[in-house]
Structures are given as C-alpha cells and as structure tokens.
Amino acid sequence: MSHRILLLPGDGIGPEIVAQGRRVLEALRDNHGLDCELDTAPIGGAGYDAAGQPLPEETLAKAQAADAVLLGAVGGPRYDELPREVRPERGLLAIRAELGLFGNLRPAMLYPQLADASALRPEVVAGLDLLIVRELTGGIYFGEPRGVRELPSGERQGYDTEVYSESEIERIARLAFAAAERRQGRLCSVDKANVLESSGLWREVVERVAADYPQIELSHMYVDNAAMQLVRAPKQFDVIVTGNMFGDILSDCAAQLTGSIGMLPSASLDERGKGLYEPVHGSAPDIAGQDKANPLATILSVAMLLRYSLGKSEHAERVERAVGQVLEEGLRTADLQGGSRVVGTVEMGEAVVGRL
Ligand SMILES: NC(=O)C1=CN([C@@H]2O[C@H](COP(=O)(O)OP(=O)(O)OC[C@H]3O[C@@H](n4cnc5c(N)ncnc54)[C@H](O)[C@@H]3O)[C@@H](O)[C@H]2O)C=CC1
Ligand SMILES: CC(C)CC(=O)C(=O)O
Ligand SMILES: [Mg+2]
C-alpha cells in the first residue's frame, strides 16, 4: 500500500529544511522499498500569500486525506503586522486542532558525538534521553475567552484563558503513562498547582490515571522548578507530561541540552496514531535563505513519521543511524559546536542521504 505523505514547508527556513526531509523520503522510496507518494501544500504565511488564510481549506483537506504530514515551520517578521486571526502561527494551531493532534511527543536525546555541543558539562548530559509529552490542543493557546478589551478607565487589557477539562487531561496522561511503560518507567507531571486551578485539576486527574499504571513511578513538579532541574540534572527525567504552554517552553529548554534546537524532532498524534511531524524550532528568520539551518531536526522528524504513522521502524532506524554517522564524521551545521567541518543545510541533507 502506498503511503500518502503531505509536506507543508511553511515559512522562513521551513522550505529549506523540508527539502532535505523530502530528499530522505525520496531516497528511501527509490533505493529502500518505501512505497510513498509525496504532495506539497502551503501553510502559515505561505498559506496566507496563496489563499488569504494561514490554513487554506485545500491544505487542510490534503492533510486529512494523507497518512502523515511533515511540516517545516511557520511565521516571520513579514507577517507580524497582520491581524492576529490570520497570522501564520494561527494556521499551525488550526491544523493541530482540526486533525485532533492532542499528543505531542518531543524526545530530547543527546547524540554522543555532540557531547561537546551541549550547554551542560559532558558528565551532566552523557546518555541523556528524555521525552516531553506535551498536551497540544488545549490550555491557554486555545482557551476562550481571549482578546484585548477596554477597561472603564480607558486602558486596554489583554487576556487569555488556561482551561483543561478532565477528559483532555486524562487522554494526555494515558499517552504519557504508556510511553513511560515502554521506557524506564518514570513519569514526572509538571504543573503549577500551587497557583492555578487548572493545574490543581491536572494533578488530581493524573493521580487518578496513575491507579491504572501501578508499575510506573509517578512524581509531580512545579514548572519553575522543572525548568531549573532540566538544566541542573536533566537525567533525573525519563518522561515529562505537561500542558501546552509549559511543554512548549520546557522543550526549547531541553533543546540546549542536546546541542541545538536544530536537533529536536517531534510527533503530534491523534487518538488513532495518525500524525503530523515537525522540528521543535520555529522559522528562524535570522538565518532563512542562507543555507545555514540545521536540517537534522526535520530529518529526525521523518524518522518519527516512519516509525509512528507508517509502522516502518527499520526505515526509521536507518535514518537515525545515518544522522549518527554524519555527526561521527565530524559534519556540523553552524549551530552545533565542535566537529571538524561546518556544512550548510543542503550539504548536511546530502550527507545523510549518502549514508542511508
Ligand atoms: N512550529 C513553528 O512553526 C514555530 C514557529 N515559530 C515562529 O518562528 C518565528 C521565529 O521565532 P523565534 O522565537 O526566533 O524561534 P526560532 O526557533 O525560529 O529561532 C530561535 C533561534 O534558534 C535558531 N534556530 C532555530 N532553528 C534552527 C535550525 N534548524 N538551525 C539552526 N538554528 C536554528 C534561530 O536561528 C534563532 O536564533 C516566529 O514567527 C515564531 O512565531 C516559533 C516556534 C515554533
Ligand atoms: C507558534 C507556536 C504555537 C508553536 C510553538 O512554539 C511550538 O509548537 O513549539
Ligand atoms: Mg515552541
């Protein structure tokens, strides 16, 4: 059966890095028996330019029909003056919501070849392998009401709402407990239950779900401490489960432990395991169009796509081994310290394809 994969390059460095992800998929198709059909559609600022909406209807229809989606990144200064409803980032939030992608898996793993590139001392990060499970379609990024209102004094006030229902918390908790079962059996739930009502309920529901997973060691941590612990002693974590905004912030923080945000892939899954795959980083306008972006987070997202949505673990491992090999050979994009040769986006992609 041919797998339909939709590519959504987006904005900024998005087209450059997705082009390298595409080459990997094409090489697997042409030389390693991966039966797939690739299609492309605009999203984010590119969607706005093409169709006046950050998530054009045709793009959504293609994504719904696809077996898996690979996305680059959206956003950039060109679009910052647009009304908020049509900003590129709204297109990303909308596709996550429309596809029901509530479960965002963000592994942060240190390739041993990058021990020198980590922001932390080698002995603190050696062997680092943690997984952040971020709730992706609820919380303050989606909560209503939101907006800017005028107070009686004439002053304007901006407001957003953090909301989580029991069912939303329960399904992300189950996904995280199941992930912990397949890993080292430790789950840390991160919240701000000392202050927020929504976090109080979060903690209560996670505790309730824990009764079904007696073999998992569950702990709770406030998000401010979790940010500190991630940079103090990250290996204490196996799986972290948290809400949308806390997970967004903590995963950028975890990126630095692995050497660069250009190394972090992600999978966003629906209830049936259908998914959208994207690097954790954004559209990096500061380096867009300069052949400087690290394509490895996108290429590692291709590996996650192969594993989770296509059930092709052998192909996924082939991609991950190829990434390890180019790092072993000393190739580095400019965001990564160390190595013996700095290469651009295209050359890094070519090198991975060459090692497949
Ligand atoms: N998933 C998405 O599409 C996301 C989009 N954004 C959007 O991206 C735009 C820029 O946001 P920023 O806050 O600057 O975050 P960013 O992640 O785009 O960039 C932060 C820093 O990391 C660097 N960086 C990011 N990816 C890299 C890569 N692959 N290789 C080398 N260096 C890389 C950038 O050059 C920059 O210095 C904004 O419009 C923002 O809304 C931000 C985060 C996620
Ligand atoms: C534009 C944001 C909604 C996306 C983001 O920062 C993320 O998902 O990591
Ligand atoms: Mg983010």
Automatic annotation (TrEMBL):
Provide a GO CC annotation, any one. Answer: cytosol
Its top-level enzyme class, in one word, is oxidoreductase
Cofactor annotation: Mg(2+); Mn(2+)
Q: Under what name is this protein listed?
A: 3-isopropylmalate dehydrogenase
Q: Taking every annotated instance into account, which residue ranges of this chain make up the domain Isopropylmalate dehydrogenase-like?
A: 4-352
Biological pathway: Amino-acid biosynthesis; L-leucine biosynthesis; L-leucine from 3-methyl-2-oxobutanoate: step 3/4
State where the protein is found.
Cytoplasm
SUPFAM superfamilies per the UniProt record, alphabetical: Isocitrate/Isopropylmalate dehydrogenase-like
The cofactor remark states: Binds 1 Mg(2+) or Mn(2+) ion per subunit.
Q: Name one GO molecular function term.
A: NAD binding
State the reactions this protein catalyses.
Answer: (2R,3S)-3-isopropylmalate + NAD(+) = 4-methyl-2-oxopentanoate + CO2 + NADH
Could you describe the subunit structure of this protein?
Answer: Homodimer.
Q: Give binding positions for Mg(2+).
A: D224, D248, D252
The record's HAMAP family line, in alphabetical order, gives: LeuB_type1
NCBIfam families recorded: leuB (TIGR00169)
Q: Where is NAD(+) bound in this sequence?
A: 76-89, 282-294
Q: What Enzyme Commission number does this protein have? A: 1.1.1.85
Q: Which domain of life is it from?
A: Bacteria
What's in the keyword line of the UniProt record? Amino-acid biosynthesis, Branched-chain amino acid biosynthesis, Cytoplasm, Leucine biosynthesis, Magnesium, Manganese, Metal-binding, NAD, Oxidoreductase
Per the record, where is site Important for catalysis? Y141, K192
Primary localisation category: cytoplasm
Could you say which residues bind substrate here?
Answer: R96, R106, R134, D224
Q: Which family does it belong to?
A: Belongs to the isocitrate and isopropylmalate dehydrogenases family. LeuB type 1 subfamily.
A GO BP term here is:
L-leucine biosynthetic process
| Role summary | Catalyzes the oxidation of 3-carboxy-2-hydroxy-4-methylpentanoate (3-isopropylmalate) to 3-carboxy-4-methyl-2-oxopentanoate. The product decarboxylates to 4-methyl-2 oxopentanoate.
